[in-house]
Specification:
2 domains, OB fold (Dihydrolipoamide Acetyltransferase, E2P), four-stranded antiparallel β-sheet, elongated, ribosome binding, Eukaryotic translation initiation factor 5A, 161 residues, SH3 type barrels, translation initiation factor activity, IF5A_C, protein biosynthesis, 11 strands, mainly beta, 1 helix, five-stranded antiparallel β-sheet
């Protein structure tokens, strides 16, 4: 290899932190999180079968995708590791709603976050728009996992005018 050759390595990780961590399937419980088919999910049901002829007890997971609400299922030997997503929930104050469906949010350090779209959930969308139009101070909860973010809840602060 000559000195004139340069190697560039592209890093796919944002801060060196992994989007998931391993956990043994037999230790995952209801209302925990799991990655099924590459999607972050909340576990709604876990059932474990007895050890079979070939020695592994199996865990059957039924989970709901935390972003799109789809139901997913997986069966994993209880001694194997599953990927668990790092799920974070952050609260921001709503500043503005743009015409193209994006929201402007106030961060804790006084900056703004302008890269989130309004939620697709009709009840939540109506609650946010009605509250904003009425001039109420709204706090939006944003859930993030595996590089995705979505508004998942709204609450009113103070007594709106």
């Amino acid at each position: 290899m000559s000195d004139s050759e340069e190697h560039h390595f592209e890093s796919k990780a944002d801060s060196g932190a992994s989007k998931t961590y391993p956990q043994q399937a037999g230790t995952i419980r209801k209302s925990g999180h799991i990655v099924i088919k590459g999607r972050p999910c909340k576990v709604v049901e876990v059932s474990t079968s007895k050890t079979g002829k070939h020695g592994h007890a199996k865990c059957h997971f039924v989970a709901i995708d935390i972003f799109n609400g789809k139901k997913l299922e997986d069966i994993v030997p209880s001694s194997h590791n599953c990927d668990i997503p790092h799920v974070d929930r952050q609260d921001y104050q709503l500043i503005d709603i743009t015409d193209d469906g994006f929201v402007s949010l106030l961060t804790e350090n006084g900056g703004t976050k302008d890269d989130l779209k309004l939620p697709t959930d009709d009840a939540l969308l109506t609650q946010i728009k009605d509250g904003f139009d009425a001039g109420k101070d709204l706090i939006l909860s944003v859930m993030s996992a595996m590089g995705e973010e979505q508004i998942c809840a709204v609450k009113e602060i103070g007594g709106g005018k």
